[in-house]
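G.,

No rush on this.
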Amino acid sequence: MDEIDLKILKEIQDGIDICEKPFEKVSEKTGVSVNEILNRLEVLKSEGVYGRFGASLNHRKLGFRANGMVVWNVDKDKVDQVGKEAAGLDEVTHCYRRPKVDGKWDYNLYTMIHAGSKDECLDLADRIAEKLGVEEYQVVFSTREFKKTGVQI
């Protein structure tokens, strides 16, 4: 990674404009051609400098008022398969596994869902549970949202 890579990464770390040709604006700000920006980003990805480049939407601006973290108690022999299935659902925005804590916390799979209301979120969790074939789960709702940022250079 060189100074040009750093210049590009610093320019895009807080996001790029949503427009027809967003990298043209990055090019104007960095003085690096669009082709070179895209080539350098591809090399950095192949080197493992970053894992993915994707959109992060503001769900509240889209009308989603309820955030539900659904915590699932899945048999340890099935959790990987159920997790893959859950992660593949359009309704699930985040999906990850955490260990259970004996006697304190019985849940080992976590999925984040969003809906217009808490009732809609609960209904969505019920439908997902049916799809996944998991009976033991809870929905934990966000009460406050903090600023979200990615890694900063």
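When you get to it, here's the other one too:
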Amino acid sequence: MKHFEDFTVGDTEQIPGRMISKEEILAFAREYDPQPHHLDEDAAKASILGALSASGWHTCCTLMRMIFTNPSAPAAFLGSPGVEEVRWKKPVFPGDELSATGHVVEARTSKSKPFMGLVKKRYEVTNQNGTLVMTMEVWSMIARRATGNAGGEAA
């Protein structure tokens, strides 16, 4: 289990891929983002995207699943104060295999909660062709090894 002290600015992690299916795109769109270019192939062909595509929010959710099911990167995660930036660079189409790279861009101890540190990562999501489809910068609250738990008591 990685604690705050294990994160260093400049660290990079590779996040294994996940294929996006047409059925998954349709199910997500029906539930959360019912725009025509996510729901209907004919409407999608007539759109600026030219084909059925995943919602950008679907791509964000897929990245989160990839991060938290990556067996090589368990961390003492305590939550997140928020996402700083998301950029959808290219559409994600059925059959695309997404993978990601995470870069630690900032790490600091919390001034108000000494039992944790804050780690900012920039994620770059690419498809099977190496095309950048999304970037996201997000902060994570990570328990410090020195105190070890969210209650702030010494471990």
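Residues 56-68 form the longest helix (13 residues). The beta strands are 12-19, 77-88, 97-109, 116-126, 132-143.

Enjoy the weekend,
O.
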